[in-house]
Each structure stands twice: as C-alpha cells, then as structure tokens.
Amino acid sequence: MTSLTPVGFVFRHPLAFTGRVLRHFHANRGVLLAGAVAYYALLSLVPLLILLLVALSHVADKVELLTLLHHYLEQLVPGEAELVMAQVAQFLDHRQTLSWMMMGTLLFFSSLAFGILETTMAIIFDHRHAVHNRHAVISLLLPYLYMLLLGFGLLVG
Fold first, then answer.
1. pTM, two decimal places
2. Is the confidence at residue 129, as pLDDT, over 80?
3. What percent of the chain has a predicted confidence (pLDDT) above 90?
4. Where are the domains of the chain?
C-alpha cells in the first residue's frame, strides 16, 4: 500500500487537514502572532518610510515625489490618501528639522521593530527547522537594504 503525498492527503481528507491546521494555528497562538506581525510591520515601516521620503526629496523633485506617493497611497488606502498626503507634505516642508538625533532614534526603534518582526516570523515558520541561522549583522542590515531597494523602486517608478 502506498502512502499518500501531502497534496493527496489534502484532497482525500480535507476536513482532517483543516482540523489539523486549525489545531496547530491555535497551539502556536496564530492570532497573537498575526497581530504582532501586523503591528511591528507598521511600527517599523512608517519611520523608515519617513526617512526615505526625506532622503528622496533631496534627490527627486518634491512635487513629482508627492504625486507618485499619492498614486500609491490611493491604491493602498482609498479615501484616506489626502489626509496622509497633507501630513507628508507638511513633514517634507519642515525636513530641515529632522536632526541627527531624530534620525538615530527612528533608525534605532525601526531596527528593534524589524528584529521583533524577524523573531515572530521565526516562530511562525518554526516547523521548517532551519539548519543555518542568519548572522546578527545580516539581520541588522536587511531592513536598511529593504528600504534602499524601496527607495530605488520609487525613483525608477
């Protein structure tokens, strides 16, 4: 007798598969982890996005940058883009007040948030039993590489 493949098991026993998924989701505190991922993703991306916009405003035309950002925000949060754009425009108008201390604070707390986000993702995907853990320096630099790539994408777009 041949054993079922994982896909075959899902098709032959969908209720058993669904029950197993829900039991594991509950045992691993899935709702709590999902909330942590959402919270820390926002907590880490917003400050770095502000820094990215300030940096891009020195390279790209401010009006062009705000138009592009408005286009993306309209897709992401329809109806709320104007409110966000008003705050972003005001922040960019006073970008010279972004001191080194504020930049350091934003980078520090964003790094902490990305670290917690990485830990949460490691708990979620614990079943994969990674053979090799990432070096701490690489984990520290990944968020900034991500933001550089995002900035490059905004410049090209």
1. 0.56
2. no
3. 3
4. 30-156
Using CA atoms, how far apart are residues 104 and 126, in angstroms rounded to an integer? 32
Q: Cβ–Cβ contacts within 10 Å for residue 41, how many?
A: 14
Look at residue 35 and tell me whether its pLDDT is greater than 90.
no
The DSSP secondary structure of the chain, one letter per residue, reads: -PPPPHHHHHHH-HHHHHHHHHHHHHHTTHHHHHHHHHHHHHHHHHHHHHHHHHHHHHHS-HHHHHHHHHHHHHHHSTTTHHHHHHHHHHHHHTGGG--HHHHHHHHHHHHHHHHHHHHHHHHHTGGG--SSPPPHHHHHHHHHHHHHHHHHHHHH-
Supply the pLDDT for residue 1: 45
